[in-house]
Design brief:
Layout: H1 5-13, E1 22-30, E2 40-45, E3 48-52, E4 61-68, E5 74-81, E6 92-98, E7 103-108, E8 113-117, E9 123-127, E10 143-149, E11 152-157, E12 167-173, E13 179-185, H2 194-198, E14 200-212, E15 218-228, H3 232-235, E16 239-247, E17 259-268, E18 275-283, E19 289-295, E20 308-315
Antiparallel strand pairs: 1-20, 2-3, 3-4, 4-5, 6-7, 7-8, 8-9, 10-11, 11-12, 12-13, 14-15, 15-16, 16-17, 18-19, 19-20
């Protein structure tokens, strides 16, 4: 059997990491826990996940127990805060568990730091060495995301730093906590016209979460939240738009990283969810990888939002 030469050569030249991904949305689960400002999530072991919430009484590190059913749905979720009295007021936004050190690293938007903590929530005194350009982000648009896998951390600011149009996707080495290579990523344009943004009660757009896949690729969550001013009829127009992309910085030498759209979905007035946390969950019996998205309800936002976990299934075989 003969094959066209050019397509065959192109196929053979692709790295193994370029295999296709498919996504199924399992369910968006409302959580029967107290309202909070949960902004990041990471898997620690079995059914235990670490979560950050910077407005809590203690240092803002919680642990959730999340049990999964065979179909990818989850059962009851419990939440408890660590009692080590870690530092407050840093606006913690994301968290990762590092198996090699059995510690947590937390990205804080308040002071643009990424600090290490013991599992009891106490700081170890170590932190990543942040490059100078990332220390002066736009107001309320600093570190929102953090990912980790196999000795490498990844982060970026929610919006590009002042004077730039691309996000700086920054890597760091676990070995000495120093910065590695900087990559550049272009987020999608807003879907809301500038005139409506100016008149909105609340509006936010940018990269809210990163997750590293086992093969080295990165999942990038871009989200846009729009809440208009006015009465009930106006509030019915509220929405969150979430777009999940995959990019491959370890095998992409482009000046601007290529990205592939996996899925886009909306939540509206009836299930409004501002997804700011993202991490891998357990494998399903059929071999697919679950992905958890955690919403920041901003303490319920006067009834507009709730605590949610949305479960997706990724087929990366």
């Amino acid at each position: 059997m003969k094959f066209p030469l050019l397509p065959l050569l192109l196929l053979l030249s692709l790295p193994l990491q370029a295999q296709e991904l498919s996504v199924e949305h399992i369910r968006q689960h409302p959580l029967q826990i107290a309202h909070g400002q949960y902004s990041g999530i990471t898997h620690v072991s079995e059914d235990i996940y670490a979560v950050v919430h910077d407005k809590a009484v203690g240092g803002g590190i919680f642990f959730f127990t999340i049990g999964f059913n065979a179909d990818g749905t989850i059962g009851p979720v419990t939440a408890f805060e660590t009692d080590a009295g870690g530092p407050k007021g840093r606006d913690n936004e994301d968290i990762v568990y590092v198996p090699e050190t059995q510690t947590l690293f937390v990205a804080a938007e308040g002071d643009q730091s990424i600090r290490e903590y013991y599992l009891n929530g106490a700081p170890t005194g170590r932190q990543l060495r942040i490059p100078a350009p990332l220390l002066s982000p736009k107001a309320n648009a600093g570190f929102e995301s953090l990912a980790y896998r196999d000795g490498t951390f990844w982060t970026t600011t929610e919006s590009p730093i002042p004077g730039e149009t691309l996000h700086r996707l920054q890597s760091f080495r676990l070995s000495d906590l120093s910065p590695g290579k900087t990559y550049y990523y272009r987020a999608d344009e807003p879907s809301v016209p500038a005139s409506e943004v100016a008149a909105a009660q609340a509006y936010v757009i940018g990269i809210s979460a990163l997750t590293a896949l086992p093969d080295g690729r990165l999942l990038v969550l871009e989200r846009e939240v729009y809440v208009p001013k006015g009465g009930l009829l106006d509030m019915l127009k509220s929405f969150t738009r979430c777009s999940l992309f995959v990019t491959d910085p370890l095998h992409d030498d482009s000046r601007e990283l290529r990205k592939t759209l996996l899925t886009t979905f909306y939540t509206t007035f009836m299930n409004m969810a501002n997804f700011e946390g993202m991490c891998l969950g357990p494998l399903l019996p059929d071999g697919r990888q679950t992905l958890l998205l955690l919403a920041d309800s901003q303490d319920g936002s006067q009834g507009l939002t709730a605590e949610y976990i949305r479960v997706l299934a990724l087929d990366i075989r």
